[in-house]
Amino acid sequence: MVEPVYLIVVALGAAFSLGLLRKAGFVMHHLVLLLSLATMTAISAQWTVGLFTGSVSPAAIPTAGFSPPISINLQMGKTEGFLTLLVNLSVFLSSLFMIKTVKRRSVYVPMLMLVFASGLNGIIMTRDLFNLFVFIEIMSIALAGLIVLNGDIQQLGAGFKYILAGALTSGLMLIGIIFTYHTTGSLNIDTIANALTPELKAVGYAGLFLIFIGVLIELKPFPVNGFGLDVYESAHPAVGAVVSAGAATATLYAFAKIAIMSGDLFLELSMVVGAVTFVGMNVVALQQKIANRLLGYSSLSQVGLLVLVWSLVKWQNIANGDLIVLGLLVTHAFAKATLFWLSGIIQKEKIEDWGIIKQRIYLLFPFAIALLALIGLPPFPSFFAKWELIMALAANQSHLAIALILGGSLVEAVYLMRWFGHAFKNTAAEDETLSVSFCQLLPVFAGGLLLIGLGYPASLLSATASPIPWMLTAFVLFTFAMEFLPAKIKNIIVMAAIAWYGYPLLTTIGGYRVIFAGIFVIGALVTMIPGFSHKGNRLGFYPSLTMMFAGLIGIIEAKETMSFFFYWEMMTVGSYFLILRGKNSKPHALSYFLFSLGGAYLILAAFGYSFGQTTSVSLDTLSQVASTPYAALVMLFLSIGFMTKTASVGLHIWLPGAHAEAESDVSPMVSGILLKAGIFGLLMTFIALGDQKIGFVDIAYVLSWVGAISALVGNYLAAMQEDAKRLLAYSSVGQMGYALFGLSLMSHLGWLGALSLSVIHFTYKVILFLAVGGIVYRLKTKNMYEMGGLIRKMPITFFAVLVSIIALSGIPPLAGFGGRWVAYNAVIEKGWMLQGAIIGFSGIIAFLYLFRLIHTIFLGQLKDAHRKVKEAPLPFLLPQMLLIGLVMFLSSRPHTFLAPIGEIVKEFKPDGALTWTGPLAQSHLGYWDGVMVMWVFMGLFAANFALLFIMNRRAQPVKQFNIVYAAERPARPETTHFAYNFFAPYRRALGFLEYPLATHFFDGITDFLHAAAGFIRRLYTGNGQTYLFQIVAFVVVVFLLANGGF
Amino acid sequence: MNIVYAVATIFITINYGLVLQGIIGKVYARVATRIGLRIYQPYINIIRQWVTRTSINHGIMYYLGPVFRFTGGGGILIFLPVIYGAPFFSSFSSAGDMLLIMYFMFLGTLGMALGGGESGHPYAAIAVTRGLAQTTAAEFPLILAIFSIVTQYQTLDVNQIVAAQQGSVLNWTLFTNPLATIAAMLAFLGSMMRSPFDVVLAPQEIPIGPPTEYQSQFLAMLMTNRTIFPVAKTILYVNLFFGGVALQDSWLLTFVIFFLKTFFVYMWSVFVGVSFPRFRVDQSVRWFLKAPAALGVLAIIFVQTGM
Amino acid sequence: MTSTIAMTTGILLVLIGLFAILTQKDLIRIIVGFSIFDIGVHVIMISIGYISDATAPIIENLSQLGQSYVDPVPQALVLTAIVIGLGISAFMLTFAVFMFKKRGSLDINSFRDLKW
Lengths: 1046, 307, 116
Hints:
The complex is a heterotrimer of chains A (1046), B (307) and C (116).
Chain A: H1 5-20, H2 26-53, E1 59-62, E2 73-76, H3 78-98, H4 108-125, H5 129-147, H6 153-184, H7 189-195, H8 198-203, H9 205-218, H10 226-234, H11 237-261, H12 267-285, H13 291-315, H14 321-346, H15 364-375, H16 381-395, H17 399-425, H18 438-460, H19 470-481, H20 487-508, H21 513-528, H22 541-557, H23 561-580, H24 586-614, H25 631-646, H26 655-661, H27 666-689, E3 693-694, E4 697-698, H28 699-719, H29 724-744, H30 748-779, H31 795-809, H32 816-830, H33 833-858, H34 874-892, H35 895-906, E5 915-917, E6 920-922, E7 927-929, H36 930-952, E8 956-957, H37 973-976, H38 984-990, H39 997-1016, H40 1024-1042
Antiparallel strand pairs in A: 1-2, 3-4, 5-6, 6-7
Chain B: H1 2-31, H2 41-51, E1 56-57, H3 60-79, H4 98-118, H5 122-153, H6 158-164, H7 173-176, H8 178-191, H9 210-213, H10 216-241, H11 251-275, H12 281-289, H13 291-305
Chain C: H1 2-23, H2 27-49, H3 72-103
Helix pairs in contact in C: 1-2, 2-3
């Protein structure tokens, strides 16, 4: 083992030798820089590996031949090893990144970098108060030099403000250090910690407080961090990266040392400051349009989060608290560094201009990885850290902390994913080109890979869950590797993989899961067929798709809450990327993501409380919560969480845009298949928790109203759409409303209805979206009033739509009726008539949009522009035909799927099951024989058709305009095709249903947050003196706060 | 055998419907102080259309529209127990309960709407939008009323509902659940295409709607359906609210009861129709969602609270 | 007594320095304010370690062992602190020079390019 002191020696030595090698030239300078940083990285890596595997024991390194407390001593333990590795690696990668991009090719840059690195290592390793101060100063001075790398006025201003603020705080720290020395007689952190008796704490409070507040201000808490933001904004991105990954990390550890030294004196205080910083910075960042400054906001908010979490885990003595903090820290360091490096490549100030990233499309991968890691999504270390944290907090019932952390993360996701949307969707000016060098790519991809790679070890450290089923994740990663292949081949591979994985799953899984597994697996295979119509390699599509389907299959397979949540989030991410691929889907994909994330956080909190109450992470034991005081809360959170997926009214506003603007073959996936994940979750919840009451209010009763109103509003709005895909999307809102209503009945028939509806909805909604997708593919428009008369051009599509609208509307003899019949039986049995009547009313309103859909597209007048339109391509037609076959089968033999589903439901709700006599179903209220209805229908239809055919086989076919039209023939089809504002009278009568209450509500929240951000950020006046004043005021306020001065 | 009974049911109903139409024509005429057409005029009309030689066809859906329509109308009739206790007048009622009948009604509507739509005439589509809009609203009080009586009788089986009303006139739903009956009878008006809810067809001015686009045998089939569909619907109402028609000792008596009951229920819409001016569609939508819906809700509350 | 005077002086200097830093608009004056502040901090440090009537902790021969010395640690620390403070002052002055060259002004209000 190389002595840890060499971490500092190498850095300083190399820095000084560079002074001698001044004339040696650029290459030599950077060679020395990189070599010494590599050496340092190797040393800390060696120690980290050794310490974590246990082959070496932590070392205390005395200096000057004395042992502490007489001398300054350094320490190398697990944390120190890991953190030095982290900072050295990030500084190394940043130095590599800088080589090609630094304008000023002077020896000072490598020198400063090395001094900076030595400061970081010193801060992490030292155990001496004054030495800590010295290293902080070394780091600050080196950093101030690095900030002004380009020497422009912005950097000079930022650097000056930074030094001023640093000088002030270091003065405060110095006073604090000397007072603490005066009280305790030592400068050694450990000695002081041991010496601090309660009396000494009281006497030496001021000194300890000054040190504490000094280090805290070095961490740039809200609102005294204007100088820090200026640094992030103006500094070279490579410097931004080392500030974020290196300086923040080291300073955080310094803070931790001071806080431990002060014995729990300031834990509450730092929790408050951390929380305020985390939430405050995230909110203020909402208004930020400048990429680097946005990164600054995000960095500072993350540091706030780390301060908060560190203090929380210490305060509550959370078992593996250090690992939680390290997980968050390492994610933040590498993610933020990666983002800064990317910013250095893109070189665009405004986030709106990041569309240029698509010139090097592969850069989107590390970009997405870094953003998702920051938000805490799987499979990154932060995901596991956040999971552990929420579990522990929920167990300790720290409601406020959970709310703050999850709420803050949600706000953070807003601006991060908005940024990704800009990068993914905006187009750059033609004449701009993006040049990238190897030295820049290496750090970026190293950062991305490290984030992925660290996920696995992070998951092993989790104390509250058994291992994740990694196989699906592995396949997702594999799809990244095969991105270079043509789309058709990838389509085959992914389909084969899903079939290979799905078939055994379907045969073994059993229970109610098999229904959903069937929808997901078969749905995946069917809806992937249209993918064959794509040429090229369709970059990014297959990883997203695989993520979504792996997520869906993962939640089916999950046995523990953690793996459920892991795959739930993965599904959300995959579907977000899929939706984002649509042409105009930028805002809709974002709102989908945010609603899903908000819902996921509620699910997370619910799992946390469930764990806290039952100390079990198994999904099967979720039902144990039912007997605890948290039952209603868990039920409520889970329900709302899953309802964001089913887009129940109030939480539905993301759906129409997201489903309508997605690509033609994505819409059926997200609408026909993905929505069922929400139903699955709701069913799981209801099975586990059953009826729960909050006060006197039965949650299920409330949900039944939500379901009914979703059905009404969804169907009504569907009827009012001009855009065919939006119509179908709103229709899904309504249909999922039925399903929610059915589930909330909490009876055998209600669940049977909801489950059969889920199956059937899958078939016809996929058909409809594919049909409309095929039409949009040919016509290049989604507006129904621009279509018309397509029945002759696309007869197969017409037939598919006809069958599926009959099935959707529930008209016998097709399969939709079975679900309706069961549902009404359930309603009457339960006695929830008013909701039931609204469901019935919405069912009839469904006719409005269904007729509109089929009429305005296929009937009426064919437009001149469409006279040469061809039938939709085969890859679109084939799955429709397959599914029509399925619908027809289910329609003519409804008992073959209703009876088995009934058997599954019986397991949970044995009472009130149907009795089947062959195809005849009997409830205690009524009866229905699907097969007989089908025969009657077919007989009558055939007879009537024969009659008509015999009587008028000579009917003369006529052309389009051969109609009685006020004694004229219409001049143009447009004037005669009745399609726009189709249900005008209905709108006059019931237009109030269109009032966008939910949209206004959520708009109100976002507007408020943005307005608040716009107001608060005026704190950052740009004037260095104001910042200094803020620091002084902050110190005073915090002091008063800590001592009850208010 | 059932098939023969079904065809017979349809045949009898067609004749009955044609007679009814003739009578209604007379009523309308006399109210307007006209003499009116001959009472057998509907027979002439329908036969004339069936045998017309020229006919034009706008396309496959246009062709199938009347087929769907008649399938829907005929289907309801044979799924209904027309006469309680007489198996050959309830030929296929074992296929499903009231829910089946309620939903099957829409099949014909949909078929005709689509058929008319393919003609390409905008009026056809306009009429369909009006008709659908009005129907949605008119069905709402009906759903409430049906929920109410289903709760009352605890069954969805029309036969059993009729059975429960036997014995005395006071056992009719009309008397045991007057609110539901009123709500349903108001809803009934909305589906009979008569004033004040006939703007859908606007028969007195420019005739609009899918039937306008049809001629010859197509129209004949639609007209045939129009004779049986309202009757089928009336039978449903009679069964649900007015004690149904039970098989009596003599067939003659049975038919007399059948004719009287259906006639008066049918005439309810005619009487209202001749007395009131016409609503616009948005007005009728709002109308149905106010008083009739409120009555329906009250009917449910009364039944559920056992009052 | 001496240490109290020193301490008071130090605190006064710190406050004067702070006042200058917070009120002066000229970069050079702010830097001067910082220097005063820094010196105040150093004086406070020395005064902490001072013991009345004690001598410097320099032991030249063993006979001096019994005497009372002032605490040597603050004095050692203050040396380092002075060096750092000097470095920072110099650094700030350099910045000020460059900033003046770029913008032609020394008013701190004229360096508000970055805000919000």
